């Protein structure tokens, strides 16, 4: 039964990846006025990633799609992966709430698939953004995770309201308790302790999600993914044409430093990806192209 579940989840994450890549390239093509409109439209560079087990056998891989130097997106990565193998002790320790699964030591097989996205924008008035959704399976347990959060260096209350309202509208059909719970989870998860502040204006986040009803949990995860483009793309269209100041560009570079600190020090996905031997360039594609520390 779970072979079918895994195949459906992996196919869905790949389909979402394809939709996002097409939409982002269309945003590049349609940017005909405002800052950077005279630049050439950006395109994704697509490459296959592979993973090899310690014994040399195939351990899965994925698709890494990165656009650099676009006129709207300065750097954006949209990665899809499907990986499998066995979890070592350090990888098990990077699994947070699930690291104590009974039986894992005796049978450490795993399978995981998902999509991961981070966008750093050319115009500082356009917010950076992060999104991922994923499914994880072991012989002993399975679960879903994911969410998306907005990371503007210049905050606009109406943008934040739109981003959150769109996510709420997609979650409410699954139960009105989901949005406030996942919003609070994102506020907690995307907090940067050593700076004493959030890295952005939040969004939604969940991990270790398993009610025992796979279809129900998969449907919720799909709608977390479906919420992303209508939550984010209108903000890009609205802000990309606005003029900006040197002070705003400086604020963007400093904010990117905060983002890099979080991803390198705290992000569970970064830690797990590196511990399980996934392609380091794919794991670290979330880092901004240029950042600044004061």
Verbal overview:
- With 294 residues, the protein is α+β, with helices and mostly antiparallel strands.
- The protein has helices spanning 2-30, 89-93, 157-171, 178-189, 214-226, 228-239, 246-265, 268-275, 280-283, and strands spanning 45-52, 58-68, 73-86, 109-121, 128-137, 142-151, 191-192, 197-198, 202-209.
- The chain has a seven-stranded antiparallel sheet. It has a two-stranded antiparallel ribbon with strand order 7-8.
- β7 (191-192) and β8 (197-198) form a beta hairpin.
- α1 runs parallel beside α5 (214-226) and α1 (2-30) runs parallel beside α6.
- The protein is globular and about 60 Å long.
Shape: globular
* End-to-end distance: 53 Å
Q: Helix tally?
A: 9
Secondary-structure element string: HEEEHEEEHHEEEHHHHH
Radius of gyration: 19 Å
Low-pLDDT ranges: none
Strand content: 25-35%
Mean pLDDT: 92
Number of strand segments: 9
Largest sheet: 7 strands, antiparallel
Strand order of the largest sheet: 1-2-3-4-5-6-9
User: How would you classify the helix and strand content by structural class?
Assistant: alpha+beta
What is the helix content?
40-55%
Descriptive terms for the model:
294 residues, alpha+beta, seven-stranded antiparallel beta sheet, two-stranded antiparallel sheet, 9 helices, globular
Write the layout of secondary structure elements.
Layout: H1 2-30, E1 45-52, E2 58-68, E3 73-86, H2 89-93, E4 109-121, E5 128-137, E6 142-151, H3 157-171, H4 178-189, E7 191-192, E8 197-198, E9 202-209, H5 214-226, H6 228-239, H7 246-265, H8 268-275, H9 280-283
Antiparallel strand pairs: 1-2, 2-3, 3-4, 4-5, 5-6, 6-9, 7-8
Helix pairs in contact: 1-5, 1-6, 3-6
């Amino acid at each position: 039964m779970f072979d079918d579940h895994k195949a459906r989840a992996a196919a869905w994450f790949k389909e979402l990846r394809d939709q996002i890549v097409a939409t982002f390239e269309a945003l590049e093509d349609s940017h005909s006025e405002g800052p950077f409109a005279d630049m050439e439209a950006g395109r994704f560079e697509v490459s296959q990633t592979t993973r090899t087990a310690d014994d040399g056998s195939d351990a899965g891989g994925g698709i890494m799609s990165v656009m650099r130097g676009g006129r709207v997106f300065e750097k954006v990565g949209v990665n899809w992966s499907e990986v499998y193998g066995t979890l070592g002790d350090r990888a098990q320790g990077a699994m947070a709430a699930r690291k104590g699964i009974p039986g894992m030591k005796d049978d450490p097989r795993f399978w995981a698939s998902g999509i991961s996205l981070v966008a750093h924008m050319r115009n500082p008035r356009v917010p950076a953004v992060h999104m991922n959704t994923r499914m994880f399976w072991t012989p002993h347990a399975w679960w879903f995770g994911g969410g998306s959060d907005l990371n503007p260096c210049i905050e606009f209350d109406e943008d934040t309201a739109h981003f959150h309202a769109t996510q709420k509208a997609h979650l409410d059909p699954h139960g009105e308790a989901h949005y406030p719970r996942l919003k609070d989870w994102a506020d907690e998860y995307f907090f940067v302790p050593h700076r004493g502040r959030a890295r952005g204006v939040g969004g939604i986040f969940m991990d270790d999600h398993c009610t025992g009803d796979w279809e129900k949990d998969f449907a919720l995860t799909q709608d977390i993914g479906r919420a992303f483009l209508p939550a984010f793309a209108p903000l890009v269209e609205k802000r990309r044409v606005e003029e900006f100041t040197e002070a705003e560009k400086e604020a963007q570079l400093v904010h990117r430093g905060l983002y890099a600190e979080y991803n390198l020090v705290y992000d569970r996905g970064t830690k797990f990806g590196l511990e399980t031997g996934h392609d380091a360039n794919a794991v670290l594609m979330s880092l901004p192209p240029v950042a600044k520390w004061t």
